[in-house]
Queue: 2 jobs
Job 1
Amino acid sequence: MRAEATDKVEGFEPPALGEPYLLTPGPLTTASSVKQAMLRDWGSWDGDFRAMTGDLRNRLLALTGDKKGEFDCVPIQGSGTFAVEAMLGSFVPRDGKVLVLANGAYGLRAAQTMQYLGRAHTLIDKGDYLPPRGAEVAAALDADPAITHVIVIHCETSSGILNPVGEISEAVYAKGRKLLIDSMSAFGAIPLDVNEIRYEVMVSSANKCIEGVPGFGFVIARKSELEAAKGRSHSLSLDIHAQWAAMEKTGQWRFTPPTHVVAAFLQALKLHEAEGGVAGRGARYAKNRDVMVAGMRELGFETLLSEQWLSPIIVTFFCPAHEKFSFPRFYDLMKGKGFIIYPGKLTVVESFRVGCIGHMDEHVMRRVVEAAAASLNEMGVDTAAPPATAIAERAKLAA
Ligand SMILES: *Cc1c(COP(=O)(O)O)cnc(C)c1O
């Protein structure tokens, strides 16, 4: 394993020869020291690995600013969706009711999860990208006293919108309900300090802003909620209370842990700390976004979202109106230049997305813009301006 001291966060080594940068919101480009941390085997029951699990939980908890010891961190095997399902199944009582705030695929997935769980829920669906606002949440809670919990997506990765969780939290607690946050693609880069924003539980995963590899998710929950979660889960393997109780007692995961992923994640957490924690990581991503968006706008591309809602995580661009533009061809040309971009998820207009997260800095983002310019050129597209329908769609956001 390479020593941490040799990992300078200011020196962003490129991926291995022939490996493209992943401009995607996870899996993403990881540091070589993170990959190297996976080159040894660990016994899951061994004291060394148990110590690694303990270290991981403490380091994640520290990122929430919980100084009173009111929260605890519970990792759980699987991708992020497994962790969201574990959260909903464990923290929402069987006779509870959830208000799901959706403005994209991940909000809708939370509603679908409630359906699978067979527990009561209701949905505010804002469409592709409009933010749910505090006032409408308050009104929905007034209208339905049966609602016990609200779930909001911190950064809705399908458009890249940064939802106003502070305002929503205030509305939820003013009405005496509880807030759950899917901070999957935001945690580690955008503050979610328990002293600033009230919530009961948040969930994230290894392969987003902490820059680890995929393999587990984690919840950070108020201990009183963890205790109350006993016996609620619909699922053995996704029972957060049982996972927590076993970890507290033995230091072990209940079932085979992704040992190599955990080792990689610990290294990623050390790099995160060396970069200045949440503030440092967030600043680099914001710079990545600013440089990339400015360059893309110069080429004529336009963002779906206005500055107010633009996250430093991932940015949605409209596809150019030019008749010679084709997204599959653009994708292949970008890949040929070393950059994997991401198709869009809007239903009304054609779009694509460029991630700002992962082990890369503004110099890489400048090359992304150069690659986009060259790709347009090769397609014979002289301007990346979007169609009028896209601009009309965007005007709804301002209204
Ligand atoms: C990535 C992500 C998830 C989880 O997705 P998986 O593919 O299961 O890892 C959930 N919510 C949001 C907002 C995400 O960005």
Job 2
Amino acid sequence: MLDQIYPQLEIPHTLAAGPGPGNTDPRVLDRFANSGVADHMQADVLRGMVECKKMLRQVFGTSNVHTFGVAGTGWSGLDVMMSAVMPGDSVVAFVNGTFSTIDGLTLRMKAATAEELAESPLDPSCASVKIIEIPHGQSVTEEIIRESLEEHKPKWAFMAHWETGSGRVNDIASFSKSCEQLGVLGLVDAVSSLGVENFSIDDYPGVAGWASCPQKGICCLPLTYAPVSFTETYIDVLKTRGARTFVHHPILEARHWGIIDGQDVDKGTYHRTHSGYAVAAFHEALRLTLLETVASRAASYRMHEAVLKGALEKMGCTVTSNMTSLVVFNLPVELAGREMELVQVCRSRGFGIWPTLSKPVQIRIGILNQLTQTAITEIVRRFGDVMIESGANFSMCFIEEYIFEAYKSETAAA
Ligand SMILES: *Cc1c(COP(=O)(O)O)cnc(C)c1O
């Protein structure tokens, strides 16, 4: 049948306890739903965009003029960040999980020559791009960074700050230092770390381009804006060589945010039809982050992640991650190999945890915007119940007692 009309789409509320998206604050949804219909050149929409840009600079910790939001998801921001990479450019990309692997693919697509791309359009091999693979579960270290950059002396280097696939934090201080010393332009995927970790990108001058996303640390799932920021050095490269895109061109896209000829202006000019709803939601998400402060959110993530990790270890799991918004772990021996099954059971009950998306199969439980004792206890209880049903041997009372005591000592310490 060709013309079928479906009933209205109902999507249930779930407990989003994965690597992302995070739980959107009701105040953000309220701004989204209660904004009026207004076009993309209406005065308050434009003012909102200019205010977003300024708040975003504070969240990033930067004085980079070219700091703004890219309509879409994390990959949209990353595409803008990689828009300056041209066919034949030399690149070193450090890859230690699912997301940096895809970033590596994007870089190969951008840097491939026409012949290389035609040879394998969806997965080109590219002589000028060196992918440095770090085993799953490990971080990119200072030594690997320095050795690889000294050996290849590329134009560009790429790394994920926090690799969400394996839950590992990579060393951006060493990355920035090596890039600076060797005159390499650093590019960083900060999709998972922005708004979760307390860092200022201006402390890493070797990194020329940064890209993040709306739905993780910024907690703004209503499809809004992927934050990006570029140094003058990056913009100079674009000015001399250009980029093969209109919509994702960092200089052109910045105009709607009131950044013209490298200067802040009061009102943006047309680049594309921005949504007043999206601008209002993004604005509120940034406001809430700054009201609470990035530093205090980061401290809160650290505390809650430590309790969650401790509880999982008490349940016999082995944690291999070191991010503070996400715990990646293996099940105890008696349940080993059943990771996918347990994840499926949890998901069928509206408890949205995740497996790893590349081998080995591990479980990922995230705490984005779940920064209360009640929320963490609920997450542990839900997962613990499924483990016990599956044959694990521990008592939930004992685990809840552990959580209670852990929070008591965390609160005493603070
Ligand atoms: C989530 C994530 C992405 C992709 O973000 P989308 O919002 O799904 O486009 C890219 N890189 C990292 C490190 C991520 O965690």
